[in-house]
Amino acid sequence: MVKKILAQTYLWVLLLALYAPIAIIVIYSFTEAKVLGNWTGFSMKLYASLFDTGAHHSLVNAFVNTIAIALIAATASTILGSLAAIGIYNLKARGRQAMGFINTIPILNGDIITGISLFLLFVSLGITQGFTTVVLAHITFCTPYVVLSVLPRLKQMNPNLYEAALDLGATPMQALRKVIIPEIRPGMITGFLLALTISIDDFAVTVFTIGNQGLETLSTYIYADARKGGLTPELRPLSAIIFVVILVLLIILNRRADKKR
């Protein structure tokens, strides 16, 4: 009985430590106080100010850039990562282990090292840094996560399905599209959402590849804002909106998964 109470207490303390900061941001997004922690009464002024593009044009631009980069990078890395996972799965045991190890290195590698490496690569190739280099950098570090998400689905798949489709007259492309992709689709969706989240959250790689042409993402905007001595109050409602959208997406995906089961 005592162990059960201690286990439940530990779980609730852990959940409180994880979600209390988010709850505070959401709560204080409904007050117009400039300083977080100073409640001046319920107000939707910060939400109205956030969507007033004239007042916070740079913040809205940074958010739009972040979402655009994340969507492009997540889509490209999902395609590349899924194809790479299929290729790795069809290798022999030793080759599969070697490629799995190589795929893990970028995940375990520090973001700063990845950012510096990509920065030096773009400079040596004479590529002007900006939107394109940030997208390429995000695709680079998101793809290994997609590979890790898709490989387990391939291992669960019946290995004879693909050959059976070929024996029944399907071309390799038809077998890929109608047999393999439906089997690995849950892993592809998981990889896409993971890549999307990692891309939105990234700062270290972005700051090395963003250049000096005035492009800003949400992470670089917040960093520059914090260095000025404080954070723009409108970041609170923006953070609350992002959290709610992600929460709704997770609930929808979990319910769909439960219905399929």
Reconstruct the topology from this structure.
Elements: H1 2-28, H2 45-50, H3 57-89, H4 93-108, H5 111-125, H6 131-156, H7 160-167, H8 172-201, H9 204-209, H10 218-227, H11 235-260
Average pLDDT taken over every residue = 84
Number of helices: 11
Structural class: mainly alpha
CATH superfamily of the largest domain: MetI-like
Q: Please outline the major beta sheet.
A: none
Count of β-strands:
0
Query: How many domains would you count in the coordinates?
Result: 2
CATH C-level class of the largest domain: Mainly Alpha
The helicity comes to over 70%
> What is the percentage of strand-forming residues?
under 5%
- Report the CATH topology name of the largest domain: MetI-like fold
Shape descriptor reads globular
Q: How large, in whole angstroms, is the Cα Rg?
A: 22 Å
CATH architecture of the largest domain: Orthogonal Bundle
Enumerate the spans where pLDDT stays under 50 for 5 or more consecutive residues: none
Run of helices and strands? HHHHHHHHHHH
Terminal Cα span: 34 Å
What does it look like?
There is one protein chain. The chain is mainly alpha-helical and 261 residues long. It has two domains: 64-230, MetI-like (MetI-like fold), CATH 1.10.3720.10; 233-261. The protein has helices at residues 2-28, 45-50, 57-89, 93-108, 111-125, 131-156, 160-167, 172-201, 204-209, 218-227, 235-260. The longest helix has 33 residues, at 57-89. The two termini are 34 Å apart.
